[in-house]
Amino acid sequence: MRTDTGLLAAIESPHALRIWRQPVFRRSVLDGAIVGIVTLAAGFFSFTFGMGETVTNFVQEFKQYQFDQLLVAQIALGMGFIFFGIRRLIDLYNEVLRRISVESLADRLVILDSLTGLPNRAHFLDEINRSMARAERTKGFIAALIINIRSFSSVNDGIGRAAGDLLLVEFAKKLTSIARSHESLARLEADNFGIIMEFARDDDTNSVKTAVQRVWDALNGAMRVEGVSFDLKVNIGAALYPHDAADAQTLLRFADAAMRKGKLNGNRKIVFFERKAGEKLRERAELQLELKQAIESGMVAPWYQPLVDLQNGSLAGYEILARWHHAERGIISPDKFIPIAEASGMMTDLTLSLLEAACRGWKANRLTGCLALNVSPKDLRNPWFSERLLATLTKGGFPASHLEVEITENSIIEDLAASQRAILSLKNQGVKIVLDDFGAGYSNLSQLSALRIDKIKIDRLFISTMMEDKTNMVVVKTIVGLGKVMQIPVLAEGIETPEQADLLRSMGCDFGQGYLFSKPVATDELSELSLPNINALSESAGETGADAASAMIPGQSAGLARLVQEANERAATPQRPKFADCPPKGQTGTKLRLVLPR
User: Fold this and answer.
1) pLDDT digits (tens, 9 = 90+) for 538-569
2) How many domains are contained in the chain?
3) Structural domain contains residue 221
4) Three-state DSSP class for residue 198
5) Are 323 and 301 in contact (CB under 8 A)?
6) What percent of the residues of the chain are helix, what percent strand, and what percent coil, each to the nearest 5?
7) Do 107 and 150 have their domain in common?
8) Does 578 score more than 70 pLDDT?
9) Is residue 323 situated within a structural domain?
10) CATH code of residue 165
11) Are residues 416 and 547 in the same domain?
């Protein structure tokens, strides 16, 4: 295994040489030498010129003054100073030795991983640069490999972190044992390791594949740690210089992308980087940089899609949807930039920027009703997000009671405790919580009660297919009935036809949203927004939807049938939800706000 011998030699040089290089130690030794030389010179001068006899005669002549005792005291004091100096020099030597040990450890940590002893990522990048320079001189090429231990996190959780660290150490030893003299190794992060392979000018891609396959074959297999045997599997991603990248950072990033692609595509064991993937990565990197600038400049703007009260045809509010109008690319779909914002940590800034702009648009257009805002799972787990959101509302002069925060079922179960804290903080300030895409994820009915959800939003998949798929119609009717039983309003999204709207209305669904009523519109189009279909819906009382909703559907399970029947019976009882600030029924532009019984 190749490593930076020059730097390691400097770190591991003899302590005596490193001690002498310390200025404070050299100065102390020099001072001691000067004192010793002066003392020897004084002794030589005294012996040469008979100073001892002269001093003795002087002491005898003035014996009454006891100069002999003073002389003895002076000699004793000098010996004490010499002893003290020697002790201080020894202490200084030990202190310098400790300092050198700490510096040596710090120097090793700069280039070596503290757990495995392999070079770290920074040193690995230096090795790549040196390998690139050699390849440039010899007209050869190099391959950067990133090796990932498959499912290491689950292994780590199962046996504990201490045993997991031992597994990594043993894996590093195994990797070192199979590495050839011209190959450089590193531990890059957690369960990712790296290898640099150098190839001659006359080598071809088959040589690379053979070398990578050799590594994969050697690393896969059983490994014992503290008496426990593990069947380790690895994924390897590879990128070539100069074929794929021209610098070390890009080469390593492309190898990492290839490894991750292998994990995503059915755990393919070895994946080589492809140029098409590189173009996508470059485009994604450019888009990420431009997205950051767009958020800061307000180019990602809120668009509004109306929320409609299906029972009386009134406008209940708007959902805020992000739209990015790029100067060169035009309108960029949220499906393209939202994942980038989430992966790069910009989602919180994007969400709050949208909310701030929506508050301004709500006031400028004198809108009524609520604003519904989607919140990502990462934002929900952020302990400071609720405070920042409430501060944005205060800054925009928007009442918290008019804001609905939409969260998904999966975002709740990822970290239930953090989700509960964030939801409680928002609800204490009057913000409403909407459970989005209900039925599409892990539907836990206990969460509806425990988290005090204010509204259920049925996933659009069920709405778009319920007219043809009888099973999905049962699901929709069950969710509506469940909302009635639990006194939680239900909103259906993705309504595109009058038949869907009439059917939902006959089921007792409270609110609707979809292209039947309006596509999302920009802020400057709100004043021109007209909803003719809402009025038509208010006047119609179609029998087709009601008949379809009430009929027993062939193939419906007995459990679902009983749940639907129970929901309908309980919904028909005199017990009704209590509404706060409820205007006369049929008044347009007002949102009904449900107050759950405590």
Assistant:
1) 455 444 444 444 443 333 334 434 444 444 45
2) 3
3) yes
4) strand
5) yes
6) 55, 20, 25
7) no
8) no
9) no
10) 3.30.70.270
11) yes
Which pLDDT does position 15 carry in this prediction? 55
- Continuous segment of H or E residues that includes residue 282: helix 275-297
Q: Is the peptide bond before 242 cis (omega within 30 degrees of 0)?
A: yes
Task: Give residue 44's pLDDT.
Answer: 74
Does residue 532 sit in the same domain as residue 399?
A: yes
CATH of the domain at 515: 3.20.20.450
pTM for this predicted structure: 0.56
Task: Return the pLDDT at 442.
Answer: 57
The verdict on 422 and 510 lying in the same domain is: yes
- Tell whether 297 is covered by a domain: no
Same domain? For 233 and 136 the reply is yes
In the chain, the amino acid numbered 142 is: I
Average pLDDT over residues 569-581: 39
Distance, CA of 101 to CA of 538 (rounded, Å): 83
Question: What does the pLDDT read at residue 111?
Answer: 79
The mean pLDDT of the chain is 78
Q: Give tens-digit pLDDT for 392-410.
A: 999 999 999 999 999 887 7
Q: Which of 111, 130, 165 is the last residue of a domain?
A: 111
- pLDDT surpassing 80 at residue 93: no
Are 217 and 153 in contact by the 8 Å Cβ rule? The answer is no
Q: In terms of DSSP bridges, do strands 593-595 and 578-580 run parallel, antiparallel, or are they unpaired?
A: antiparallel
Nearest to 471 by CA among 564, 572, 541: 564
Could you tell me if 84 and 186 lie in one domain? no
Structural domain including 140 reads 121-274
Q: Which residue's structure tokens are 């431009």?
A: 290
**Alpha-carbon torsion (170, 175, 181, 187), positive or negative:** negative
Q: Are residues 95 and 134 in the same domain?
A: no
Residues forming beta bridges with residue 225, ordered by sequence position? 228
Q: Could you tell me if 84 and 32 lie in one domain?
A: yes
The beta strands (E) that lie in 482-558 are given as: 490-493, 511-513
Structure tokens at 373: 């805002």
* CA pair distance 195, 131, nearest whole angstrom: 12
In Å, what is the CA distance from 232 to each residue of 148, 174, 226? Answer: 10, 12, 15
| Pure H helices in 331-429 | 334-343, 347-364, 377-381, 385-396, 409-414, 416-427
Is 287 a domain residue?
no
- Bridge partners for 194 per DSSP: 146, 186
Closest CA to 118 of 187, 193, 196, 190: 187
Highest mean pLDDT among 141-150, 218-227, 229-238 belongs to 141-150
Report phi then psi at 490, rounded to 5: -120, 135
Mean pLDDT of 88-116: 74
Half-sphere exposure of 513 (CA within 13 A, CB side): 23
